[in-house]
Amino acid sequence: MANNYYEVEEQEGTRIEKVLLAALVAFLLVGGFWALGRIESSFPEPVLLSSTTTNYNLSQTDASTVSIEDELGVTQKRRDVAKLQQIVDNRNAVLSMARVAQTKAEKEYKFRREEYRTAMQAGSALPRVRTGFESSRAAYEVASALVLPAQAALDAATKQVAGEQQKLNAAQMRAQSVFDQRSFQRNLKLFAVHFTFAGACLAMSFAVWQRARKRRWRYLTVLTAVFTASVLQLLLLLLRYCWALFLQDIAVLGVSALGTIVCVLAIVGIKRWLYSPERLAQARLGSHRCARCATPFIESQNHCWKCGHALVEKCPSCGGNRLLFAPHCGNCGVGVQGSP
Ligand SMILES: [Zn+2]
Ligand SMILES: [Zn+2]
Fold first, then answer.
1. What is the mean pLDDT of residues 239-257?
2. Spatial separation of the C-alpha atoms in residues 227 and 28, rounded to whole Å
3. Among 184, 217, 250, which residue terminates a domain?
4. Residues 330, 285: Cα–Cα separation, whole Å
5. What is the whole-number distance in angstroms between the Cα of residue 324 and the centre of ligand 2?
6. Residue 323, SS3 per DSSP
7. Cα(268) to centroid of ligand 1, in Å?
8. Are 185 and 56 members of one domain?
9. Ligand closest in space to the Cα of 326
């Protein structure tokens, strides 16, 4: 019996140990969230606008990533529309110039006509006045003839730009929907990978902790801290996702359902592991209380004075009295299989 002392279960911890363990949990959490962040950055975020239109964004997004607008040709279409718009502007300027020239020529023509008419009435129509009238009429006709084609050219360009603009709008909407779809898929993947990571951490630390507990490892508290950190990591991750959902205002109902499930699972877990009937009974017996109703009793009692339940039973091994619900006999130390 040289290793007697290894059978002493360490349950008490010093204050300094508790502080160190809390710090350990915190440091483990920092590391865990660093890893989660790395996982997140390994999934590139989809970029909607091309880098040429959002230069200020270049520092954030990788310059080599092709934006969805570039990919779907939206950027090219936008450039085409801008070029066509330029043509429309030019033709608009030409038309207004033609209109100004026409108005001017019309004024001149009307003046010359009046001059010629007055001269005719006076009976002294000089050839100079006549040619002046005729040339101004010809100039007016020429100026008028220029307006119509200019108008037609402008109309054609306007129509074309409207058509291209419509195509551009459709392409922009398509790019937006592709962006939404890709963002959604990325979030879904990220969600799965995040929770797989956190779940794996939890499962592994729990398995190691369980093994060490069975072997009564002396530094079990370290593993308890690791396990605690992985539980906290999962909870914080859950909280983060819930918060994001809440902010997006997608489904308060979803948050409610998720929170309910988590809380119910936590309650079931606590009931099963921490407050299992065996643990409760042992804890009560340990402080001399009835295993059934938790009322304190003294050594000489055979039954609980409150609930009347038996406190002792006959030990099948030594025949002496042993505490009911106790895993081992207080006289001979023999355990009772199947004791509730
Ligand atoms: Zn009782
Ligand atoms: Zn016994």
1. 74
2. 10
3. 217
4. 12
5. 12
6. strand
7. 25
8. yes
9. 2
Q: Is residue 114 predicted with pLDDT exceeding 50?
A: yes
**Ligand nearest the Cα atom of residue 295:** 1
Q: Of the bound ligands, which one is closest to the alpha carbon of residue 294?
A: 1
Query: How far apart, in whole angstroms, are the C-alpha atoms of residue 176 and residue 170?
Result: 10
Range of the domain at 326: 276-340
Q: How far is the CA of 316 from the centre of ligand 1 (A)?
A: 23
Expressed in angstroms and rounded, the spacing between residue 334 Cα and the centre of ligand 1 is: 24
Kindly state the average pLDDT of the residues 197-213. 92
Quick one: average pLDDT of 85-100? 95
Distance 203 CA to ligand 2 centre (A): 40
Do 52 and 165 reside in the same domain of the chain?
yes
* Poorest-pLDDT segment among 240-244, 258-262, 294-298: 240-244
Handedness of CA 304, 305, 309, 313 (dihedral sign): positive
Measured in angstroms, how far is the CA atom of residue 303 from the centroid of ligand 2?
19
Q: 142: domain CATH number?
A: 1.10.287
- Given a cut of 80, is residue 95 above it in pLDDT? yes
Compute, in angstroms, the gap from residue 42 CA to the centroid of ligand 2.
63
For residue 338, name the pLDDT band (cuts at 50, 70, 90): very low
Distance from the CA of 303 to the center of ligand 1, in angstroms? Answer: 8
Ligand in closest contact with the CA of 318: 2
For residue 306, which ligand has an atom nearest its CA?
1
Q: Is residue 127 part of a domain?
A: yes
Domains of the chain: total: 2
Query: Rounded mean pLDDT of the chain?
Result: 84
301 CA to centre of ligand 1 in angstroms? 11
Identify whether residues 177 and 300 lie together within a single domain.
no
Full-model pTM: 0.55
Range with the lowest mean pLDDT among 103-117, 276-290, 293-307?
A: 276-290
- The set of residues, in sequence order, having a beta carbon less than 8 Å from that of 41 and lying 6+ positions away, is none
Alpha carbon of 289 to ligand 1 centroid (Å): 8
Four-CA torsion 314, 317, 320, 321, nearest 10 degrees: -40
> How is residue 247 written in tokens?
């902010």
State how far the Cα of 276 lies from the Cα of 299, in Å rounded to an integer.
25
pLDDT at 119: 86
Starting from the CA of residue 291, give the closest ligand. 1
